[in-house]
Amino acid sequence: MKRGSLPADDPDYPLYSVTQVADMLGVTPAALRRWEREGLIHPRRTHGGQRRYSRREIGQLQRVVQLAEEGFATAAIGRLLELQDRIDDLEDQLAATHRPGHPQPRPEPPDPSTPDDPQPGPPRQ
User: Fold this and answer.
1) Which residues, in sequence order, are bridge partners of residue 45?
2) Which H helix or E strand runs over 29?
3) Burial 48-64 (b: 16+ CB within 10 A, else e)
4) Model pTM?
5) What is the radius of gyration, based on Cα positions, of the chain?
6) Which of 27, 63, 112, 122 makes an SS bond possible with 31, Cβ 3.0 to 4.6 Å?
């Protein structure tokens, strides 16, 4: 965390309890614990063992709730979240290659064995 900033400014700072998050999302605390057991979310723990959720984790849980309401099974939700994370990573990599100052790949020269013009055929009528 940056000097002078508050924990509430950091989207990864674990501020919210199970009860607070359950109320925000309209689910039960038991649902949050089940999704944790099934690996969909990984809240941090206080020294006393209580779960604490960050704003980023709450955002991910919003996606979990939406997919669950649409009827997706927990295993499918986990796979969808993994695939979305991969897409996000690839989009970040692609954006990084198109930034100004980043060397662009050179286009390959044309293959001399392939003619530029198609072979002439019989005239069309």
Assistant:
1) 51
2) helix 29-37
3) eeebbbbeebbebbeeb
4) 0.67
5) 25
6) 27
Q: Which whole number is the average pLDDT over 87-100?
A: 89
Q: Mean pLDDT, the chain, as a whole number? A: 86
Rounded to whole angstroms, the Cα distance separating 63 from 80 reads 10
The answer to whether 11 and 55 are in contact (CB under 8 A) is yes
Please report, as a single letter, which amino acid is at residue 12: D
Strand partners, 114: none
> Residues 52-72: what's their mean pLDDT?
95
Contact between 74 and 38 under an 8 Å Cβ cutoff? The reply is: yes
Q: Tell me how long the chain is.
A: 125
108 to 73, 96, 112: CA distances (angstroms): 46, 21, 12
Domains of the chain by range and CATH?
Answer: 8-95 (1.10.1660.10)
